[in-house]
Automatic annotation (TrEMBL):
It comes from the Eukaryota. This is Uncharacterized protein.
Length: 471
């Protein structure tokens, strides 16, 4: 096996969580809320996260299957405006992330904003960076505000896996372009006569990395093997995620989710529909999904194809005060990382977490809320083991000692992408809103967001509770 060879790595076992958790240190201190982070003393503007919304996240080809991505994005923009009460003409700019683009709405940020009734004079653009696309939308907004260009920005993301773009084969596309230029009936007939069965083979979107021609699931299996992550550990973590997500729904914690009245459906879609609390015995029966027959990644311990959209509102703290708003959090620091897309495709969090902590002048113990994207249970467990590995720290992070293991009682306490769902470009804003809401609910000061993405990339973000924050 090439690449990472982890040594003496601990194992993590996840028992099904109880209905309540005990929250330990890093309680919120209103008197000293902005004194710990380095950036607070570096002359930067205070940028605040007002609130966020999302559609319910659904497995693809279910209740949303007759819609398009534009419909989901519009829904989040409409509901964000309703929830925050901010007039649409106050919004300076809109940024949306998406991965699987619909050709008719390639700049979906602009099209969705127009459909949502936002000002005709509000510019908008669309970004893509795989699973961290709405993180990019959010931090791009932060950069525009820091530069002084704008004060109020909506950032969001949308993914619609029920209707992905499928093209004709390249041979057929070339033929059709030539036919469009043909000037006489004979020229067109000649081109038609050249059509062969192979022309009708569709050009499907690749589920593999372009640079390595390997699926992310295969990378997850390799990572599990490299870090000695067992099938039992993965299934235990998946069960944890689904159990916590179900509890979060039952306790009304997922207040960012707005019911969606889907045209033609009976009643509103009002919950995430991929959450399945199973048993260890049932999970153990599933066969490997990628590396057969010896792999450990299955349909149950991997995130599933999901439809959904999300949106969040950010602005300067000064602007929030002018508008009479109560922000939920400060957006403090962020960083992006990238590494070998072959052997370290899913290790973005292990690189981003120590880097963003260093930027903020914080330690693991300062973080009261962890919201980490769950692509696969194997990916989460491998990143945890990497963070707790002296070998990984010295060899790959170039640090003198290991980073350590976060307090797992504070880790994805409302479930994660394995259970709630993972509409690629919408997950980043979901993570941000859950972080802000958990900081308030759990009386914590600092939250950390991290995620991996295709191409071997990743993100890390520090969020701080605002002293005026309310749910």
């Amino acid at each position: 096996m090439s690449g990472i060879l982890a040594k003496n790595l601990p194992r993590f076992h996840y028992a099904a969580p109880q209905a309540s958790c005990i929250w330990a240190s890093s309680r919120f201190d209103k008197k000293n809320y902005a004194t710990t982070v380095k950036s607070a003393s570096q002359g930067k503007k205070n940028i605040v996260y007002i609130d966020g919304v999302r559609t319910p996240f659904l497995p693809s080809n279910t209740d949303y299957n007759k819609l398009i991505a534009h419909d989901l994005a519009r829904e989040t923009l409409v509901n964000l405006q309703k929830k925050t009460g901010v007039p649409v003409d106050v919004i300076d700019y809109v940024i949306y992330g998406t991965v699987m683009q619909e050709v008719r709405t390639s700049n979906i940020a602009r099209e969705a904003a127009l459909a949502a009734g936002y000002s005709l004079h509000t510019p908008a653009h669309t970004v893509t960076m795989a699973c961290i696309s709405s993180n990019v939308a959010l931090t791009t907004g932060v950069g525009l505000i820091h530069s002084g260009v704008y004060d109020v920005i909506v950032a969001g993301g949308v993914e619609f896996m029920s209707d992905i773009p499928i093209r004709h084969s390249r041979a057929m596309r070339n033929l059709m372009l030539k036919a469009n230029k043909a000037k006489t009936p004979m020229q067109k007939l000649s081109l038609l006569a050249s059509i062969r069965p192979g022309h009708f083979v569709p050009d499907l979107p690749a589920v593999a990395e372009f640079s390595t021609n390997e699926t992310m699931g295969h990378s997850g299996d390799r990572l599990a093997a490299a870090f000695n992550v067992t099938r039992e550990e993965q299934d235990d973590y998946a069960l944890r995620s689904h159990t916590l997500a179900a509890q979060a729904h039952q306790n009304g914690n997922l207040s960012d989710m707005i019911p969606f009245n889907v045209p033609g459906a009976k009643g509103a879609v009002d919950k995430d529909k991929g959450i399945r609390v199973s048993t260890k015995e049932q999970l153990a029966k599933l066969k490997p999904a990628f590396v057969k027959p010896y792999g450990t990644v299955t349909a149950a311990n991997a995130s599933y194809l999901t439809d959904g959209a999300s949106a969040g509102l950010i602005m300067t703290e000064e602007k929030a005060k002018q508008l009479g708003l109560k922000p939920k959090a400060y957006l403090r620091e962020f960083t992006y990382v990238s590494q070998d897309p072959k052997d370290q495709l899913l290790l973005g969090p292990a690189y981003a977490i120590p880097k963003v902590l260093d930027k903020a002048g914080l330690t693991l113990k300062d973080i009261g809320v962890w919201e980490i994207h769950e692509a696969f249970a194997a990916q989460i467990l491998a990143n945890l083991k990497a963070l707790d590995s002296e070998f990984f720290a010295k060899t790959y992070l170039k640090r003198s000692q290991k980073v350590g293991v976060p307090d797992l009682k504070k880790w994805n306490a409302w479930g994660g992408s394995l259970s709630i769902g993972h509409p690629f470009a919408a997950t980043g804003i979901r993570l941000a809103t859950h972080t802000a809401n958990r900081l308030i609910k759990e009386d914590q000061q600092f939250g950390l967001i991290a995620a991996c993405a295709a191409g071997g990339q990743g993100v890390g973000m520090i969020v701080e509770r605002h002293p005026d924050a309310k749910l």
